[in-house]
Amino acid sequence: MKLFRIFFVALLLATTLPIQAEIEYIELDDGTIISYDLDAIDGGVDIGPYTRIKDRSYHWVFRKFWYEDGYRQGVYGDGKNITDIKYGKERGREIYDPDSDAWYWLDAIFEGAKATDKEVWMPYVYQDEQNGSTDGKWVRYNSAGHMIKGWYTVSSKDCDIYPSQAGNTYFYDHKTGAMAKGYRWIDGKQYHFHETNGRLLQDKSYNIDVQMNLQETGYYCGPATVQAVLSYHGIYFTQANLALQLNTSNKTGTEYADVARVVNKHVFNNAYPGQGEPGYRAVIWTTRSAGYSARELFEARVIRDMETADPVFVAINLKTVYPALPKANHLVLVTGCTMDQSTGRILSYVIDDPYGGSQPYTENGRKKIEADTLWNAINNNTEPGYIW
């Protein structure tokens, strides 16, 4: 048996030129070459027991199929395919070609075609890597159909299936071929890869060294965070004194506008800055009403304040950040973040938390939070808002 080859040739022509025929050349197992005028074909055509032409577009892909006893392998319904438990989908299977002494993946998603220049989800169980897990790994095959291992940067000619990946860099495990995600040490150096799609991220991190004291009462998160910001600027008040200045109540806590007013008064000598004047501003909205654009604006403002070393006050739903704790409106400080420079989006935040009950889940009150988690904690809060 041998790998059955199909060659597609597309002629992309300017509209001012006469239309020319698109010719498909097919090589059968016995070496016979058959050609078809694609413009003369409507639908599909059968070529003996071998294949059926179905694709019609101006971007023909170069595909190869594997046949055993005259039947294409790796298609949906192939009894040798693997179905992963996590997604409940039939994925395809590996085959060994003695002619090239190599293993290839037959992709059920592409009607059994040999996977080339594309990513493949491979369940761990397929290569005896399960270890009790029902999960799997993303691997990638190059233009020859060989699994990529090590560093790989996608070129424009290698991304017909994923055009948005052009220029992205990935790392695939030297042994298993698994795509790296998150933080990974490679050859003695730490790299950061996107948690979902695996592309190498060009990170930029910010950190503001703020000393946070524990809040002295259950409703003093406002005075405690204001105390931390003022002391960062060399201005010192007790939490009790700040509670008076902030009009903090044991029933309603501290209003966001009062936080901005008190900090502006002492840091900028202007309790109510006008447009264009330096100072903190309070932003509030109703629960879950903020959309994607509001999140983008929040991220941009955080980055701006990190660059000027100004902590940002954020009101969060305590339970969203700490699932073991009850729901509560709680004020914390954003004192750091990590940004992907290629997109300008924030990947994670660092918060400083004055609440004693959260300390077991932090490192001395400091906690790193994924960007999605913090935004959900703000937007799902009973009183969403931030002071920047």
Describe this structure in words.
The protein has six helices and 24 strands. With 388 residues, the chain is α+β, with helices and mostly antiparallel strands. Helix 1 packs across helix 2 and helix 1 (221-232) runs parallel beside helix 3. The radius of gyration is 29 Å and the shape is elongated. It starts with a strand and ends with a strand.
Number of helices: 6
Instruction: Report the uncertain regions.
Output: 1-62
Main sheet overview: 7 strands, antiparallel
Rg: 29 Å
Summarize the structure.
This protein is α+β, with helices and mostly antiparallel strands and 388 residues long. Helix content is 15%, strand content 30%. The chain has six helices and 24 strands.
Features:
6 helices, alpha+beta, 24 strands, 388 residues, 15% helix, disordered N terminus, 5-stranded antiparallel beta sheet
Please specify the SSE layout and strand pairing.
Elements: E1 3-8, E2 23-27, E3 33-37, E4 46-47, E5 51-52, E6 63-68, E7 71-72, E8 82-83, E9 90-97, E10 102-107, E11 113-114, E12 118-123, E13 136-141, E14 150-153, E15 169-172, E16 182-186, E17 189-193, E18 203-207, H1 221-232, H2 239-245, H3 256-267, E19 282-284, H4 292-307, E20 312-317, H5 318-321, E21 329-340, E22 345-352, E23 366-370, H6 371-379, E24 385-387
Antiparallel strand pairs: 1-2, 1-6, 2-3, 4-5, 6-7, 8-9, 9-10, 10-11, 12-13, 14-15, 16-17, 18-21, 19-24, 20-21, 20-24, 21-22, 22-23
Helix pairs in contact: 1-2, 1-3
